[in-house]
Amino acid sequence: MELNITCIPGDGIGPEIVAEAKKVLDAVAVKYGHNMKYTDILMGGASIDAYGVPLTDEAIETAKSADAVLMGSIGGDTTTSPWYKLPPNLRPEAGLLGIRKALNLFANLRPALLYEELAGACPLKEEISASGFDMMIMRELTGGLYFGERKTVEENGVLKAIDTLTYDENEIRRIAIKGFDIAMKRRKKVTSVDKANVLDSSRLWRKIVEEVAKDYPEVTLEHMLVDNCAMQLVKDPKQFDVILTENMFGDILSDEASMVTGSIGMLASASLNDTKFGLYEPSHGSAPDIAGKGIANPIATILSAAMMLRYSFDLDREADAIEAAVKKVLKDGWRTVDIMPQEEDERAKVKQVGTVQMGDLICGQI
Ligand code: IPM
Ligand code: MG
Fold first, then answer.
1. Cα–Cα distance, 297 to 358 (Å, whole number)
2. Which atom of ligand 1 has the smallest separation from the CA of 251?
């Protein structure tokens, strides 16, 4: 099969981790007889430095013409980087929001699971972490507060800022359908998270989700208020299968869920439109403090490449091979610095490696 992939190395550790994901994809291509064609585009700070804007129309066109997009990370240190002296619509993040909108990537899948091999990294009490957890956060990605009208005005000498939260029923329905479809392939439970005790947008969300649920009689639906959900994620994370929620709540809850796994360097993500097209990226950021040091964990990006094979190309066997290779390398005791155990006696049982070695080890298992 010919796979036409646009790559966005991006900023910070992005280029280093994307290079390792490509290496693993190449190993898969050799083993299973595929042909990977990569075209790089610039986005975020790298694009600002080259073109003065975080995303160009040409870059969008290149991404649109591909079968899928593999991204590293964008952005820099918000207090020291000159990118953050620019107006908000010219900062690195605007590139990411721009590509999400331009490619209509409304469904963001963020798996958060506890790896058996890394259970020690989970910051929760042992009686909670011992039973493990494996959830999928389905975050709506092109609506809500992120894309509503916003402005800052001065009224009678007083500054006032306005952001608007808008959802129409179609935007809710299409993400809900994706959420229930994914739940059907998992443990058949959807927790729809909203703030229906306060917000109209949440009351509409609930109504539409309930309508969609009627088409999925095998799936159990529950509603949960977002503040309660934030609490439940640390109290009893294993209760969750699919968490279905709007853009802003999903942004916050997915960071919380990834922290609870203790290994954000391991978590992949996919952003999909209503075709097979998707953008795949690690759940973590650009980690400018460790960029260029060769110590970043490439696993989240490598697992994002596996998600790409699964969701955009239906190559389940190949995706399984990558996931199994990652598990084996962890089982054999190889760790990047971010997933090294804290305790001295546990550290003695594993071996620390850098970004490139981790990529090589995973390729070796393909
Ligand atoms: C994320 C990030 C982005 C978001 C930022 C960089 C705009 O936090 O992907 O979760 O808020 O969506
Ligand atoms: Mg975020």
1. 8
2. 10
Phi, psi dihedral angles at 215 (to 5 degrees): -80, -5
Q: Is the CB of 279 under 6 A from ligand 1?
A: no
Mutation pick for ligand 1 pocket among 43, 99, 251 (CB with most ligand atoms within 8 Å): 251
Instruction: Please list, residue by residue across 144-179, b when 16 or more beta carbons sit within 10 angstroms of its beta carbon and e when fewer do.
Output: bbbbeeeeeeeeeeeeeeeeebebeeebbebbbbbb
What tokens appear for 129 in the block?
């972490």
Could you say which of 168, 227, 316, 332 is catalytic? 227
Instruction: Write the residue with the smallest CA distance to atom 4 of ligand 1.
Output: 251
3-state helix, strand, coil in the chain (%, to 5): 50, 20, 30
pLDDT tens by residue, 66-120? 999 999 999 999 999 999 999 999 999 999 999 999 999 999 999 999 988 888 8
Q: Which ligand is nearest to the CA of 141?
A: 1
Give yes or no for a contact between 342 and 327, defined as CB atoms under 8 angstroms apart: no
